[in-house]
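note to self: dont lose this again. the chain is below, predicted strucutre after it. 143 aa total, dont forget to put it in the shared folder this time
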Amino acid sequence: MDILTALKISGSGLKAERARLNVTAMNLANANTTRTMEGGPYRAKSVVFGSRPVENFSDTLNSSQSKLRKVEVVQVVEDNKPFKEVYDPSHPDADANGIVQFPNVDTAEQMVDMISAKRGYEANVTAIDAVKSMALKALEISR
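---
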């Protein structure tokens, strides 16, 4: 594996974890949103990751399939868990029975997801730093 391929793989991980952090932040920001543009409360979202082969120039020349894969965001899906129902007849979004539907966002779950995404992001940054360090060492050896 060459240096650029390692950077592509770690870079794709950074991009994917950033998307995961953005969706988690959006979920936490809308944890109490009872009315959206579509109508009804906000529905929690999550990111689905997938992988695809890394394209290398040498793979194109050799026309062989690369076993190295990078990560990408395949889609952002909505959580189908039921909404939380709270009795609050004074709330402007309460129904005839005084029940208000709140988003299905579990803040503890979102915080765990945020920490996990942060750790994944840090791991990819560490990998990029290691590749950079190896490249610098190789340049020093060649002097």
